[in-house]
Each structure stands twice: as structure tokens, then as C-alpha cells.
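Continued from yesterday's entry.
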Amino acid sequence: MGLFEQLRDNISRGLGALQGRRPVNPEPVAPVAPMQAQAAMPDSPWLTAWLDEEDFSASGLPYRPNEWFSLAQFRVPEDRQVQIRSGERRIRMYLKGLAVRAGQNLGAPAARNVVVPNLIETRQASPTLPTLFHPEIAVWALVGSNWQKCPITAINYNTNTITFTEPAGVTSNTGIEIYYTHSDGQFRFRILRELGGVDDSAATAFNGSFSALHSLEQSNLEAMWAWANEVNLVPGMRVSLEVYTTNVPMIWNDRANHYLHIYAESRKLNVLDRSRLVKMAELSARNNL
């Protein structure tokens, strides 16, 4: 009922009371919500914006076996809205585990075999060995104070054995790092809204097992998983990549050579009320997720 109709009925009831007529109870009227102020205004059209490993930063949390922990996080820029649409299949991910070995303090470079747990072969093209650059495996050696990449000469997926050339002079007990695709545990992406201090509110957006992820034919869109629900990200929100493994440590650094490629869209945003905007985005995320 509009404002003028309410005013008309009030006047009519007032006249009726003066004339001695019994008042008639009006039908209940739903309250009219006040006009809601806009929390933000778009400042550009939607544009392609891939979320890559370069957009994520290490969380700084140490690895914990048999527990979920945040491996890396993407923080939404203060002037952007980022959206991943429901059903999106343009997703490619290869996330590496870590095996650490002591250096042998060799006098000259020599071949070395290392057995690692849960090694898995992906559907990516295999390069000719030996090679310094392999899509699934990277071996690094700490020589003095510098990390140098080691040539990979052989891989036996049946015995989980990686053969590489260890350089001379690796003395540290943690001087050899081997990063490799594995089948241990699970991963998930969670949407976080910052509440202040160290508190966050979170909703899971996408998840799966490493075994399934690393055995998928990820160059085939029909075979790749679909992002389940639409996600809208605004300033004050983060995407947390979290992992759970039993015996394969994981760390986020440049040597790991993680590969992460998720199709998204973004547009510039003129934020008018940041607090209200992020609350609205979180409510939308929770309804969808």
C-alpha cells in the first residue's frame, strides 16, 4: 500500500470515528524497507583475469601432517571485484609435494637415486631426459648459500624413484629439495572474509583429492572438473588454498614451481561502503556454497 493510500484511509477512519461509526480493522500491511544505500559502483566492464600462482602468496603457516592448513592465499585488490562463474572448467592445477634430503658433500657431481612417497605421473607431456625442466619434478641443491637446479636423469613411477645429478659440495642436512606431483591427501579453496585481528569467516568454494586432480587430463575441458558455484570476491576478502596430507609436506615458494591457472573475470570497483560490501559478498557466498 502506498503512502497516499495509507493517508487516505487514516483520514477516512478519523472521520468515521467522529461520526460514530465503528472502525474497521484494516488488512495488515508489510513494512516498506528503507532504500538501501549502494555499497559500491562498478567502474569498468568485466575483463578476463586469470588467477595464477603468481597471484597467490605463501600464508607463512608451517606444514602440519593430518591437518588442514593454508598453503597460499590470494588477497582481492582494494579496487577490484573478481568473479569465478559457476560451471567454469578452465582450471589447471599441479601442486607439488616436498621431500628433503641431506647433501652428500661430494667431491664431484654424481648420480643419486631418491625414493619419495606417493609420486604420481600426470597426463602432461614428458620431456626427454636428462633435463633441468620437468613439469612434474624439480630438484634443487644448496651449494654454499645458493640454490641451483639439478638435472633429472631418470624417473621410475613404479618404485617412486627419482634419479638426478647431485653437484659437489652440498653439505647441509636439508641441502637437497625435491618437489614433485603426488597423490597424498586433499586440497580445497575457501573464501575468507576478514573480521579484524586474526579472525576470519570462511566458506568452501572448490575441493578435491590430489590423486584425482593429478591424474586428470587437464588439457581436455570435458574431462576437467567444473567450479561448482559462482564466487564473487570484493575488497576485504581472500581466497585460501588449503591442503591436507598424511606424509607429503607442502610449501609455497618459487622453487616448488606450483602451477595454478583458474579462469576468472574482474572489473574496477568504486567502493562506497567497504564493510557493508564485504558482508553482502559473504552472504552471497554462503547462500551459494
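--- second protein ---
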Amino acid sequence: MTERQKYLRLLSIVIEELPSSAVDAAVRAGYAAPTSMLNNVRIGRVHNLEHLVALVRYGLPKYQIPAELLPAPAPISLLA
């Protein structure tokens, strides 16, 4: 499943319950993304799985995101 497919699937599951206050909670907690970007992710205008996962974690802390919908781990670079 692609990252975009994961994003759309997760958004379809949480869109009804994800409060707009999730954006404020993420920003207050120090999540490094602009408020406007997070708002666009929350409403589906921008497809960013990492941001959506953060919004779900801050806005719906008791919701367990299915493992198959989490972002793929970043590859480890041997050149770094």
C-alpha cells in the first residue's frame, strides 16, 4: 500500500471524530509543522501521512492506529 493510500484510508476512518483542536494540540506540544499545513492535512487538502498520524495522536490519544496504516520507516543511509 502506498503512503497516499495509507493516508486516505486513515483519514476515512478518523475524519468524523478528529477535532480541529488536534491542530492546536500538536502545535502546543511542539510538533514541527505550520498550523496551516496541519489544517490542510486534517481536511484532506494536503496528503501527508506523517502529519495525519501526529494529528490523530494529539487529537484522538486513545485511538490505536492500525500498524498497516503507519508510515514506512525511513531507510538508513550508509553514507551519512
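DSSP finds four helices and no strands in the chain. The chain has a mean pLDDT of 93. Will compare against the first tomorrow.
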